[in-house]
Amino acid sequence: MSKQMRIDFVSDVSCPWCVIGLKSLEQALDRVADEITVDMHFQPFELNPGMGPAGQDIVEHLTEKYGATPAQQEQSREMIRQRGAAVGFTFDMGLRGRIYNTFDAHRLLHWAEDQGRQQALKEKLFEAYFTQGENPGAHDVLLRAAGEVGLDVEAARQVLASNAYADEVRQLEYYWQRAGIHSVPAIIINQRHLINGGQPPEVFEQALRQIAQQDEELEQDEEPAA
């Protein structure tokens, strides 16, 4: 009998390791599909909540934020490109020249969950930013992505034109920060098991099997005696 598992995937659409983590997790879930049924929820996290609408040059940003030299950044980009290719995702680092504010993307993703298209939109926005070099906070990019995954574009336009879901997204961001999430991706399974980072598929697969077994044993221990 397939075990039901809830996964909260805390991430930002401007985080390359979140792409790698999601693609790796998807491969792992394919491998355990006969054993585990997943209810996936994408939770908001902003790497740069104070970023202005025009964004910032990525080399300048990484130098200021992490002290990384251009050579170190180039080495990191190549490692990310290779890790992405290994899980079937194309990073075109030459096109990604700026870091952008992603709050509106998180608002639209929150709305998309109610429409049953949250994961599809998340992946489309990853592609827009990391493969096509587009601004994932720009409304025209968000609306096109919404249409491409089958969402109602006019309804999406109304969400973006208003302040809809702003409070909900802020509350969720605060919730996860209070829960101790300060880097992403953070993958929370059944609301009690945490896996950090863009792990390889094999690591996720092993963790999923172990957690499913542990939680089954825990449920059995909690069952009242007849």
TrEMBL record:
- Read off the SUPFAM superfamilies from this record: Thioredoxin-like
Taxonomically, which superkingdom?
A: Bacteria
Tell me where in this chain the DSBA-like thioredoxin domain is found.
Answer: 7-208
Q: Which protein, by its recorded name, is this?
A: DsbA family oxidoreductase
Q: Which organism is it from?
A: Telluria antibiotica
